[in-house]
Amino acid sequence: MRGVVWLDNSVKTEKNESKSLPELRISADTSHFAYNNKQGHRSAIRISRILSETLRLGKENVRWFVMGDDDTVFVTENLLRILNKYDHNQYYYIGSLSESHLQNIYFSYSMAYGGGGFAISYPLAKAIDKMQDRCIQRYPGLYGSDDRMQACMAELGVPLTKELGFHQYDVYGNLFGLLASHPITPLVSLHHLDVVEPIFPNVTQLQALQKLTVPMKLDSAGIMQQSICYDKVNSWTISVSWGFAVQIFRGVLSPREIEMPSRTFLNWYRRADYTAYAFNTRPVMRNPCQKSFVFYMSSAKMDSYNNQTVTQYTRHRVPHPLCRWKMANPADVERIQVYKKPDPQLWDRVSSSLSRIYSNFAY
After folding, report:
1. Left (φ > 0), alpha (ψ -120 to 50) or beta: where does 173 sit?
2. Which Pfam families match (predicted)?
3. H helices within the chain, ranges in order?
4. Which helix (DSSP H) or strand (DSSP E) does residue 6 occupy?
5. pLDDT value at position 350?
6. Considering the domain boundaries, does residue 184 fall inside one?
7. What is the mean pLDDT of residues 223-242?
8. Is there a single domain that holds both residue 222 and residue 115?
9. Which DSSP letter does residue 243 get?
């Protein structure tokens, strides 16, 4: 993989920084393009033309162009897993939507959102390059770069191929509910991490991402994938989001309920309620006895002898309401260990019925 960072102006770099930075380029002047969206910024034109400008660099052996924002985090191995599913010799425009139903209405349900990142095959990039400047001139009223890109795709007759692992994350607050119930697909990208809480508690956002890279390096195919288990002795429901968190619920809850994200987050439009999401959600448990006990990943390592990963999850200590149910109390559990064999080919053969069952755990 090769990367290019496109800027509107040159920046100062130290002598040794150039070795650790990707290639830096300055975008061409776009002042001659019309832009009349009063709510947006004309930099959207410059950003939308990055695809053509990167193509014109003439780099060899290119199959895909992948675009993301300056606050987009990619899981590169999973990105490659997704792209390897498709024939790069054909026209493909791959990405995903916003989590906000209102965002998708205002912009488009046919558009790949740039913050979540999107991929364009090389032949399609060549076709875009031939007509993009003329296409951009026809849409001076559009808001951003990604809707301009989709407008040009529509003119070429290329639909969006949706992959749910690209995450725009047009939400505020705590991403826990979304990450703990990740859809059955590789985690490809994270976005808007500067406007949400750190994904792990009591650390900065950067420290949280650094923490996530530990299990990610051990088994990127399995990161955030959900397993739902049942402890018959204690009558508990256990949800494992591998490499991130484990939840224990009192009682037996159906997979249909647990695989649905709990609303720990807020809509991008502050006045909107849960009906304004583009997917199903469930409320945070109101019954004091069914409030989940959360255990966050605290360490991860590879057991080379047994060829398995060992991840440890430590209970997040927050006040829990009094529960009068006469059953085992998850508060007595301090740590949980999950044993899992890495499976790089998981997504080459995965089915929804099998992907839920791949972990052993102990506490």
Report:
1. left
2. DUF604 (PF04646)
3. 43-48, 50-55, 76-83, 101-106, 122-137, 145-156, 176-180, 205-218, 255-258, 346-349
4. strand 4-7
5. 55
6. no
7. 96
8. no
9. T
Q: Rounded CA gap, 6 and 70, in Å?
A: 10
Count structural domains, the chain: 2
- Rounded to 5°, angle at Cα 84 from 240 and 74: 55
200 within a domain of the structure (yes/no):
no
What tokens appear for 40 in the block?
A: 């947006």
d(CA 277, CA 273): 8
For residue 78, give the nearest of 176, 179, 185 by alpha carbon.
185
Residues near 197 by beta carbon (within 8 Å), at least 6 away in sequence: 173, 174, 175
- Domain assignment present for residue 19? The answer is yes
Q: Which of 140, 162, 184 is the last residue of a domain?
A: 162
Band of the pLDDT at 13, cuts 50, 70, 90?
confident
Q: Which two tokens stand for residue 256?
A: 């249909």
308-348 tens-digit pLDDT: 999 999 999 998 888 999 999 999 999 999 999 998 877 87
Bridge partners of 231?
236
Single out the residue of 11, 8, 13 nearest to residue 31, CA to CA: 8
Rg over CA atoms, the chain:
22
In a domain, 306, yes or no: yes
Q: Per the structure block, which two tokens stand in for 44? A: 């959207």
Expressed as residue numbers, the domain containing 341 is 216-362
**Are 149 and 251 within one domain?**
no
Provide the residue type at 285 as one letter: M
